[in-house]
Amino acid sequence: MVLKVLAFLALVSVMVNSQQPAFNDDVLGLIFFKAGLKDPNAKLQSWSSDDNDPCNWTGVKCDPVTYRVTELHLDDLSLSGHVGRGLLRLQFLQALSLSKNNLTGTINSELSHIGSLRVIDLSGNSLSGSIPDKFFAQFGSLKSVSFAGNKLTGHLPGSLSSCSTLVEANFSFNRISGQLPSGIWFLRSLKSLDVFGNLMEGEIHEGIGNLYDLRLINFGNNRFSGKIPGDIGSCLQLKYVDFSDNYLYGTLPDSMRRLVSCRSISLQGNSLSGQVSDWIGELTSLESLDLSANNFSGGIPSSLGNLQLLRELNLSMNLLIGYFPSWISGNELMGSLQVLDLSSNDLYGEIGSKIGVLSSLVFFNMSRNHLFGSIPYSIGELKTTQVIDLSYNLLNGSIPSELGGAVSLKELRLQMNFLSGKIPIQIVNCSSLTVLNLSWNNLSGSIPPATSNLSSLEYVDLSSNDLTGSLPKELANLSLLMFFNVSHNNLHGELPVGGFFNTISASSVSGNPSLCGSVVNRSCPAVHNKPIVLNPNSSDSIGGSFPNHHRKKIVLSISSLIAIGAAAFIVIGVVAITVLNIHVRSSMSSAPVSLALSGGEDFSCSPNNDSNYGKLVMFSGDADFAAGAHALLNKDCELGRGGFGVVYRTILRDGRSVAIKKLTVSSLIKSQDEFEKDVKKLGKVRYHNLVALEGYYWTPSLQLLIYEFVSSGSLYKHLHDPGRSCLSWRQRFHVILGTAKGLAYLHRMNIIHYNLKSTNVLIDCSGEPKVGDFGLARLLPMLDRCVLSSKIQSALGYMAPEFACKTVKITEKSDVYGYGVLVLEVITGKKPVEYMEDDVVVLCDMVRGALEDGRVEECIDGRLRGNFPAEEAIPVIKLGLICASQVPSNRPDMEEVVNILELIQCPSEGQDELE
Ligand SMILES: *[C@@H]1O[C@H](CO)[C@@H](O)[C@H](O)[C@H]1NC(C)=O
Ligand SMILES: *[C@@H]1O[C@H](CO)[C@@H](O)[C@H](O)[C@H]1NC(C)=O
Ligand SMILES: *[C@@H]1O[C@H](CO)[C@@H](O)[C@H](O)[C@H]1NC(C)=O
Ligand SMILES: *[C@@H]1O[C@H](CO)[C@@H](O)[C@H](O)[C@H]1NC(C)=O
Ligand SMILES: *[C@@H]1O[C@H](CO)[C@@H](O)[C@H](O)[C@H]1NC(C)=O
Ligand SMILES: *[C@@H]1O[C@H](CO)[C@@H](O)[C@H](O)[C@H]1NC(C)=O
Ligand SMILES: *[C@@H]1O[C@H](CO)[C@@H](O)[C@H](O)[C@H]1NC(C)=O
């Protein structure tokens, strides 16, 4: 009402002065417009109806020739009220900018009657309602429109698609819903389209490729679904792509490889999947790449190392596997990298020792992977790094003292690893340190007193370590401290007094039996103010005054018990190993005995002078076949058949059982010399998780290999024979670990197994797995893949993909693949490939799928009836999947597998076994 009266008065005063010649519609319009506004800071004071030259008014610009108002810039003036109709009088207005005020009401559809408008900026107000349907229908030359940061609802009007002059449109930060107008990709002049932060839905349809000039597209934070449009790569000018936080799925369209001008790609927070392809390294203008929080799988392409301008790389929260990328550390090209976040993936391996070359790194997060090994010294070369988060990995070793070189460090998070040793005193050089979390490690020693000089500290968590010594009193001077947890250590003495420590909670210091102070409800001997009166007749009073003494004694005795127990165990272990060593040495040193034996297929025992004489070599002991050679290849004694031959059992005269393998690949065998050389090499392999080769027999037409006999049959039988009792979780873990050790040993001896499968893993009477049948492919004249894969075709499902690919070398990593499959087989109780009625189930794929769906526990053998520690089972499954990676280089080597398994093994469970 008041406004209307004002407007009326203004109009009257304009009328009164109307004899002035310069008076025109513009003054009338502006005064009318002002009348609809509230101007608390009197910013529009100069707008006076007494003055009929509006060209000098605040925020008004005129054409220098015609003196007509062409631009209105009233940004950030705290104006409120409505965008009034007065503006419609400004027939030559080209730019209307009213951003960052507090304007309310709806968008006036009549604005489109100002045909001259080129720029409209109403962003940062409180406009509501929807954008009028026909709003964009009439503009003749509109180039830029922004309604960003209002409270607009409804749909984007279809008329938008007909505004062919449009270059920039910004509707971000509203509550606009509905789908994109269908003709939007006809806006050929469009360079920038921003609808970030709305409620828009539906698919982002193809056709975007029409927009040759598009530089920026921001559809982030909406509800778009479907795939990234496949023709997006035709927008060759694109510099900035943001589709983050939508419901997009599918893979990265290949056409994206053409976006070579692109500086920033943000696709985080969708459900995109598949591999991050190698072509990503062709986008050499990239400065920022965020693919985090998706379902990307496979390895991290090393081509990322080519992106010299890359400043931010966020691949966190995906299903990426493989080693810590070697191109990151030791790649001088990555010198511009500031943010590196690879957290929450399935990466493993050691942090590259040359990580220090990342000379611009500010933020470094590798948390929640499976990194092992120690923290590299070169971490101290990260002079600009503010955040280092390596928490939730398998790191061991000590925190390097070089860390003190990371002088910009504000956050150091190393919790949940296996770090040992002391907290390096050099940490005091990190004088900006605000957050220090070293909890849940095996750190020992005392808390460096100089820690209290780190005056920026706000959050300190050292809980659950083996820290000893007392808490430095000066810690109480840390004035910004808000969290301080040292619970579950072996700290003693008095709690600091004052500052934060006056209000510290008991749980933050609990679990330190020798700490004293009022918080822990234990008085400290030294601070007793009252004189202590000792009653010589009462032992109680002494105990009462020094309650912690008692406790200390108990603690001591428990810890000494543990120490004694451990020592005893170590002694037993040493003795056992020594005995084993002596045994092995003596059996190896006994010279091979050569015996003559008939080589005819009939195996008559009587030696004759036939040229067909064979040669029998035993690497140790006696070679008398008790049952005579007749029994040798008797069908009744057959133990099994494999790709390389048939296996029989027989008993030596000394009562020892042996397994004899008759090679069925005779025609392919090498010359005798080479055969003997190779077999002798295999004979040298002695390891308790490997089936020992005891000897061999040679004739040109027949070759036998004589193996140690392993009593309890194959792993295959234990897993899949319906008659067998089910293996417990612990037995399975034992088999998985033992098999890994066996393979690791083989690889150390430079022997590739070539044929790992559950029928080739034997179990002895004490449940120890022994890997057999190794290295036989060496006996073939050449490693012909065809022969090889036909020989081991029974190993279907275990065979690494490179067997099918002639260009990839077969290496130890091919064994790792088979091992990965075997792990999954042991855990699920399912065969690597199972044939259903009209379906083939490939175990790896099935488990991988279940893992991605978050229901991996359902894969675990039902016969275990939930009787397994999930914290072991799930990492083991992941390890199995990593081993069964398609790309050989993504597979760990067996040595690492053994290390990882030993770390995975629950400590308590491990102990059970020792008892
Ligand atoms: C514009 O306003 C300024 C003071 O705000 C004054 O000095 C100047 O003379 C005015 N110009 C015209 C053309 O009115
Ligand atoms: C904008 O106006 C609304 C109501 O009209 C008021 O609540 C709010 O505080 C104002 N905001 C500013 C920044 O003036
Ligand atoms: C759109 O407007 C918002 C809010 O004013 C701004 O932050 C954003 O940068 C604008 N988008 C473009 C592409 O200029
Ligand atoms: C990954 O995919 C699974 C289903 O395949 C889904 O449940 C999960 O939410 C996805 N994760 C992300 C981050 O999209
Ligand atoms: C990386 O992405 C994740 C998930 O989108 C996010 O939580 C995290 O803050 C990002 N890291 C950095 C350094 O921005
Ligand atoms: C590092 O990443 C993990 C997992 O993605 C996250 O929980 C943690 O907050 C991140 N660390 C920092 C310092 O942002
Ligand atoms: C770290 O663990 C690996 C096995 O994972 C072991 O070989 C190495 O000796 C350990 N290092 C330290 C310092 O404990």
From TrEMBL:
Any single GO CC term annotated in Swiss-Prot or TrEMBL for this entry: membrane
Subcellular location(s) per record: Membrane
Ranges where the Protein kinase domain occurs: 633-904
Protein's membrane topology: Single-pass type I membrane protein
Spans through the membrane: 554-580
SMART domains: LRR_TYP
Binding sites annotated in the UniProt record for ATP: K662
The keyword Protein biosynthesis is assigned to this record: no
Keywords linked to the UniProt accession: ATP-binding, Glycoprotein, Leucine-rich repeat, Membrane, Nucleotide-binding, Receptor, Repeat, Signal, Transmembrane, Transmembrane helix
Any GO molecular function: ATP binding
Top-rank taxon, per record: Eukaryota
Protein known as: Leucine-rich repeat receptor-like protein kinase PXC2
Species: Hibiscus syriacus (Rose of Sharon)
